[in-house]
């Protein structure tokens, strides 16, 4: 059992806490400007400066659905890492993650998500419920793949990018850093790479 610290206690944090608790871990405290009603018996830390690495490794409870929110999330994660906090990865037991995929520290892979062979998930990236990251795709640090989105083989999603719900990023496409790809769209490669089979 690991005692862990939660950064942010909004809606996304509910999934994070549920996953870590199901793995047998214990939430020691949460950091949020506001008291959280769904964590009534957990110690509340109102200011970032009052948290300490001695409170345990850090689970990121913050989501983000805009480029600005994802950038703020990345800055906060970097500040905590610089202070010596260990970032916990969060992988739902109902997610399918290939043994040959790489999941960096602080990354989240939520319920029903699929991460295929050779895929690389960057630090603090968020692979949301029911999404797919196909073989050899790369998801940059702090990027968010929204529910139901599909990032196909060999595609790249840059750091801090937001891939909207239901979107398909086609094979070998390159979504630049801090790009918003709207929900239910198709993102195509700028230079088609021939006829490689997906």
Order of helices and strands: EHEEEHEEEEEEEEEEEEEEEEE
SS element count, helices: 2
Low-confidence stretches: none
Strands across the major sheet, in which order?
5-8-11-14-17-20
Q: Structural class of the helices, strands and pairings?
A: alpha/beta
For the record, give the distance between the C-alpha atoms at the N and C termini, rounded to a whole number.
41 Å
Biggest pleated sheet: 6 strands, parallel
Specify Rg, calculated over alpha carbons: 17 Å
How large a portion of the residues is in β-strands, by DSSP E? 25-35%
Short description:
This protein has helices spanning 11-22, 67-82; strands at 3-7, 26-31, 43-45, 58-60, 90-91, 96-97, 102-103, 108-109, 114-115, 120-121, 126-127, 132-133, 138-139, 144-145, 150-151, 156-157, 162-163, 168-169, 174-175, 180-181, 186-187. With 198 residues, the chain is of the alpha/beta class.
In words, what does this structure look like?
The protein has 198 residues and is of the alpha/beta class. 14% of the residues lie in helices and 26% in strands. It contains two helices and 21 strands. A six-stranded parallel sheet has the order 5-8-11-14-17-20, covered by helices on one side. Strands 6-9-12-15-18-21 form a six-stranded parallel sheet, with no helix packed on it. Strands 7-10-13-16-19 form a five-stranded parallel sheet, with no helix packed on it. α1 links the parallel β1 and β2. The longest helix has 16 residues. It is globular, with a radius of gyration of 17 Å.
